[in-house]
Predict the structure.
Amino acid sequence: ELEEDEDHAPGEVILHVYNLRHFKRVRFANAIMRPLGAGIYHIAVEVYGVEYSFGSCDEGSGIFERDPGCDERHRYRQGEKKGATQ
């Protein structure tokens, strides 16, 4: 049986939502779809205080980690708590 320690303690999971700032057509479409509860956004997941997201890159996996809410390529919109790790 595994002992629970700080490294394996449950951690809060937060979904971070960003507006896509570099696509004018997407911003326009979001303005129309937002009242309907829809849109096109960049999403990242925060676990244990680190935000993870996926994006295009020339080398590597395309998985990025950064400080929560600090993706400089997009404009931060909101965070939503989704529960805890197990």
In short: The chain is about 10% helix and 40% strand. Helices lie at 24-33. Residues 17 and 78 are 5 Å apart (CA to CA).
